[in-house]
Design goal:
Blueprint lengths: L1 H28 L10 E5 L6 H17 L3 E5 L6 H8 L7 E6 H6 L14 E10 L1 E4 L8 H10 L3 E4 L5 H13 L4 E4 L3 H10 L4 E2 L3 H9 L4 E5 L27 E9 L4 H14 L3 H9 L3 E5 L1 H21 L16
Parallel strand pairs: 1-2, 1-3, 6-7, 6-8
Antiparallel strand pairs: 3-10, 4-10, 4-11, 5-8, 5-9
């Protein structure tokens, strides 16, 4: 009897680790009712290094552990992000193709006639980062402060870099000149990082990209900050507080954008549930919070109906801004977008 018990115990000890490993693997990779069986493609429709790219890569790294499959991040820039966004939208609606972008971009592609048949309402947003725009200049520029900035715009043609027509830095620049009543020379690039680099190198004099994209260059003293487009100062580790633009123009609106993942509506409900659950884990990760702190941004967790509200507000605010400043001739009213 003792011999039989010993043999049985040995068999249990041999099998148990495999069972525990399988159980652990199942717990790690199984989320909701959807168990993806192949690589998920995450299209970032901008160049590498910008806010969309940085946010997407961190979320992908955290979510693939939870979903149990690889999430391949593919940069596909062009037409202010519309090229890659359209490609992702036209892929099969099976949950395997996502987009990494910003609320403002997705909300204005239709009004800019870049994606005339695709509305912001055709996407479910998962937003993980909020970051404001910062007015910065090349350190060799004669622009030293707010008064110098306004004087430059009112007395000469200032070259301002952006990630493209309708992108965050472009909207920031259009908002700025709307309030000070001047014009400027818009120089679009294929992403936020190339726009920042262009200003650092002296190709352009000013860039109004996101804090996430300019923080490192400000620390390295390769850019000079003039103001943050917010109603409160911006703190970037290692630097003096950047004054809010409302110190100079009290009624100036906050120009800040949410970044994250966008998935076409119409995917299976079980896939949507699993993605939402994985996203909820990813936005609580140390990796995302550390990146937010380093890049002077705020980690957020916005999805579902709350994300729908954010998208409607973005469409209202930015679509009408682009229409009122004559960037687009399409009235938001025709698309059912009310004035803010």
């Amino acid at each position: 009897m003792r011999k039989k018990i010993s043999v049985s115990l040995c068999l249990v000890l041999l099998v148990l680790p495999g069972l525990l490993f399988a159980a652990g693997t199942k717990e790690k990779s199984s989320v909701g009712g959807w168990k993806p069986t192949k690589t998920i493609t995450l299209v970032v429709p901008w160049g590498a290094g910008g806010s969309s790219d940085l946010t997407a890569r961190i979320l992908a790294g955290e979510m693939e552990n939870r979903l149990g499959v690889k999430i391949a991040v593919v940069n596909q820039p062009g037409a202010s992000g519309a090229t890659g966004t359209k490609a992702a939208f036209e892929a099969p609606k099976d949950g395997y193709t996502w987009v990494g972008n910003a609320d403002m971009s997705i909300a204005t592609y239709q009004i800019l006639d870049l994606l005339p048949e695709i509305s912001h309402r055709d996407w479910q947003a998962y937003l993980g980062i909020l970051t404001p725009c910062v007015i910065t200049v090349n350190p060799d520029s004669p622009i030293k402060d707010w008064d110098g900035l306004v004087h430059a715009f009112k007395t000469r043609e200032v070259a301002v870099a952006s990630a493209g027509i309708g992108a965050g830095g472009h909207v920031a620049a259009e908002t700025f000149v709307k309030y000070i009543g001047t014009k400027y020379k818009h120089v679009p690039y294929k992403g936020g990082n190339p726009a920042v680099v262009a200003t650092v190198s002296g190709e352009t004099e000013v860039v109004m990209q996101l804090s996430q994209e300019v923080a490192d260059m400000l620390r390295a003293k390769k850019l000079r900050a003039i103001a943050v487009m917010d109603n409160k100062p911006l703190m970037i580790t290692g630097l003096d507080l950047i004054p809010p633009i409302t110190n100079y123009i009290k009624e100036f609106p906050t120009v800040a954008f949410h970044f994250g993942l966008f998935i076409p509506r119409g995917i299976p409900q079980e896939a949507q549930d699993s993605i939402s659950e994985a996203f909820a884990v990813a936005v609580q990760s140390k990796a995302l919070k550390d990146m937010a702190e380093q890049k002077a941004s705020i980690a957020v967790d916005i999805k579902g109906k709350e994300a729908d509200t954010v998208m409607e507000n973005a469409a209202s605010l930015f679509s009408w801004l682009l229409f009122d400043t004559h960037v687009t001739k399409i009235s938001p009213e025709k698309l059912g977008i009310p004035r803010p």
